[in-house]
Design brief:
Mean pLDDT: 96
Low-confidence stretches: none
Helix content: 25-40%
Oligomer: single chain
Number of domains: 1
Radius of gyration: 13 Å
Number of helices: 4
Distance between the termini: 23 Å
Bound molecules: zinc ion
Shape: globular
Strand content: 15-25%
């Protein structure tokens, strides 16, 4: 991986960790899986930090794979990932799901907070 690709993956893993903390908070507050809650765009741009509404169930579906991330539509990094929204969740206009291409998975798998 080049430095740009490493930087994209690093930022995605930082926002993933932040969203895991948010998810713990929503669960403590008793928000149900079918309800929407606030998360942060997990794209590779460190300046982004855009909010997104996801159902907790959809967030969990994204988190099951260490190589998938939820991003604001249009925030995908076409060089290192592809959009797989339809595979995991219902298509919507609030967020898209991206999966790292095979050549760019080392960092996202090594830092998976669920493993
Ligand atoms: Zn973003």
């Amino acid at each position: 991986m080049g430095r740009r690709e490493e930087s994209v993956a690093y930022n995605e893993t930082v926002f993933r960790k932040a969203n895991e903390d948010l998810r713990d908070e929503w669960r403590r507050m008793g928000i149900e899986r079918a309800a929407e809650a606030l998360f942060i765009c997990e794209c590779g741009d460190p300046a982004c930090k855009r909010p997104m509404q996801l159902r907790l169930a959809d967030y969990e579906a994204v988190r099951e794979d260490p190589n998938t991330f939820a991003v604001v539509p249009g925030h995908e990094d076409k060089a290192t990932e592809q959009i797989v929204t339809d595979e995991l969740v219902q298509r919507n206009d609030r967020f898209a799901v991206v999966r790292k291409r095979v050549a760019f998975r080392q960092d996202t798998e090594a830092t998976d907070p669920r493993r």
